[in-house]
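This part of the workshop introduces the protein records we will be handling. A record pairs a protein's sequence with a compact description of its fold. Comparing a sequence with its tokens is the quickest way to learn the format. The record below serves as our worked example for the rest of this section:
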Amino acid sequence: MALYKLGTIFANGPVSEEKKVKALNPILISGKEVLPLIEGGKGINASDGRSSGAWAHENCVGTFSGVSPDYYDEKGNVLFERYFKKDRKSRHEEMVEQSIKGCLAQAKIAHEISNGQGRIHMNMLWELAGSQQILTSVLEQAKGLIHGVTCGAGLPYNLGELASRFSTYYYPIVSSARAFQVLWKRAYKNFVEFLGGVVYEDPWLAGGHNGLSNAEDPNQPQTPYLRLVELRKTMNELGLKETPIILAGGVWSLKDWEDYIDNPDIGKIAFQFGTRPMITKESPISDAWKKLMLQLKKGDVILQKFSPTGFFSSAIKNTFLERLIERKNNEIQFSHEKTEEFSEILKLSETKVVYIRSSDSAKAKIQIEKGFTEIKETPDNTVVFLTPDEWVQMKEDRKNCVGCLSQCQFSAWSQAKGNSGRLPDPRSYCIHKTLYDVSHNGSIVDNLLFAGHQVYRFATDPLYRNGIPSVKELIEKIKAGY
């Protein structure tokens, strides 16, 4: 598997800071005129009620993450997720129950901080197991607190019907005009009233999970402008000329996107900021995580496909990711039967052997001599090499699986069946465990750190030279074009 380092993709390159950006005019989002500036809803607790409430307070759109958000006791202390049931299906039900509590808690916090300004959105990972159950329960109980739902990571066909049932606006996240057209034809054409906008998330620039299709080359990024023009043309043909497009992925400064504002080929547009709001006073991520991002350089974020969701994702290269890369680079193909091509024996255990190519024998020997003595099969007729400690931890993580994804490659969990029937993939990891840990002051070295490909700009951005700004200060700079 290839791993890719991506640079900035702009039609004419980043715009100089001396040029003033066009004035931003309010647009109608989720039933209210607000500035077309939106906080991206990031992962597990990387955006919460504090950050989203602060964005809404500035007459923008704040977005809290609906994936395992925090909830609190009567004294305001975080109640960390705890699982008591022994079987995976029951732990999944516990996860859903706790997620609902967390979403309601964050919605209330955001509402109070916003003081009735702006709009509050909730971001949901569609591939989260129980996502529809969580959304239904939250929207039913949070009337007046949540104005819109953004949803990506998969094709959320039922989102329109579900959100409309509660008179809540919905915002599907897509990476192409074709993806939106599929959603429209199958479902959204019947739920037009509450289609608040379409989020175009650039698959080559966005942090976290990206919507690259099998037909697109991860190493051949396309210009966002042309893809947005195509999306607008499709939307116009469907009668959605007044429905805004929300540009996400790689959005740092409005000066970079000057040609997109008041452009008749793109139409109504809003801008979603994902990475830049992570370093504000209201941002819930740890100080260590913020400090790290302030020091990153171009190329420190890579696009890879280790996620148990099966999607490409962008994350900061650290020890955690480097070990996954090393494991993948030393992967070896095998055959269960001896053939002319696969003729060398590789012993997996005391009772099981497979056959590998002669040309791979030295590679296997080196790995074993380095201490990677646990040799495990993947679903693709390959083997990878782990240390005994890594294998013990992997088994423990699978044992503790809470069924957080509708389909998980790491644990072979399937929401529909209980087990997908596929071999668990030792090239992957427990995504719930690592994202939850890093979002609660866990190691920034030994956990997954999602980030967008513009993160290196923190190091030279004047806004961060004198400390960490507030959301208000950030938004003022964004409006000024910086």
Summary: Residues 1-18 have pLDDT under 50 and may be disordered. The chain is about 30% helix and 15% strand.
